[in-house]
Predict the 3D structure of the following.
Amino acid sequence: MTVRPATSGTTSDEETQLNTFETAMKKLGEIVQKLEQGDLPLEDSLRLFEEGVKLSRVTQARLDAAEKRVDELLSVDDQGGAQTARFETDAANTD
């Protein structure tokens, strides 16, 4: 049995394609379907599981960033006026 180092299972082209939340969620759904079928060899299942975990982290980070933006956009001051503030997100840099 050959042991391979753990990798993300994606090439840089694939990573570029996963730059949107929707694309990442779609890919995650495809991985879940493949794993649920249960007919993959163990190493393939582990590779897909690892890729799924990474996609899950990416999508969660993007959701967290979106939630932060919404909270900042909906915040009000003591007089009921809208509060505005500059904010930065790390959604694009979720390695």
